Amino acid sequence: MATIQKLQKIRLKKLEAIKRAGFLAYPATTKRSHKIEEALNKFTVFSRFKKEIILVGRIYSIREHGGSCFLHFKDGTGKIQAYFKKNQLGEKSYQFFLDNFDIGDFIEIRGVLFKTKKGEKTIEVADFKMLSKSLLPLPEKWHGLQDIEERYRKRYLDILFNPEVKEMIKKKAIFWNNVREFLTGRGFLEVETPVLETTTGGADAKPFITHHNALDMDVYLRISTGELWQKRLMIAGFEKTFEIGRIFRNEGMDAEHLQDYTQLEFYWAYADYKDCMKLSEELFKYVAKKTFNTLKFKIGDFDVDLSKEWKRYDYQSTIKKYTKIDISSVNLRAIEKKLRELEIVYDKKGLNEARAIDS
After folding, report:
1. Structural domains in the chain?
2. For residue 1, what pLDDT is reported?
3. Average pLDDT, rounded, for the chain
4. Are 250 and 220 in contact (CB under 8 A)?
5. Phi first, then psi: what are they for 269, rounded to 5°?
6. pTM
């Protein structure tokens, strides 16, 4: 039997032991009084007056020392240490904890806060209960998540053990909220347009195809964020619209390019490309400052300062400057010749002049 199956079998036995003892392994409610972050922030007051509080979280470590035991547990706001003392809990209750609780379990703890001799903020346990018994062990931080494929396929474990990934998820939510705030503050209306379409439009990409049973016809998952629909809304009289939504492209994928992702598209009547360039610059600066509290970034080997003046480049003249190719009069054969000279890899399937120029 594989190691993981043996560990699961042991935990299933513990689950049965909890049930036989008359306790719920998966209770529907908890009496949590404070989040860990709040308990730590108010530690001085709570500890001085020996205020009893109830915290919850997931166990990340357990260390037994004779008649006492220390564990660390986390909720969504922070981490704190808990101190189990046999003399206070009673031998039966203390042993019940040691026998049936594991790393990965969710626990509720009632007690008072104090500092250990080493100065660590800790809750001294007066009572505890199981909130959710984990039937599989958590992977080891430095050994169980080494496989990059496993990290991406089991993203929840990656987030669990890597604070920087969890912070990225939070930042993403802040980012999109700031995008909404910026655009709505300038009179744009947020809209939602269909994800299923009878014809793909607004971009050049291979779509996902599915079947609509009620209409007995094939439909496509959209490859743009409602471009054609937003243009129809302009016809209907809406002058400024935007949509933040998922799009789907049935093409290559890697760590930074998934086949479904979130995209923003906005449309603005009576404005030209210069107005949209100005708005885009203001949008990036606003969102970067509000999300990261800075306009200066290190991206790869480049230092990027968004606060500087954004230069405008003419597409046609810039390509001509670096390649000697005039895209207004060049043919496909000449473009391919230049791509080979520049050793640029490009997809020949469905290649036309527009795609070749983009390459």
Report:
1. 3-132 (2.40.50.140), 313-359 (no CATH)
2. 45
3. 92
4. no
5. -75, 150
6. 0.80
Length of the chain: 359
The tens digit of pLDDT for each residue in 215-270 reads: 999 999 999 999 999 999 999 999 999 999 999 999 877 777 788 999 999 999 99
Place of tokens 């010749």: 337
Mean pLDDT of 149-164: 81
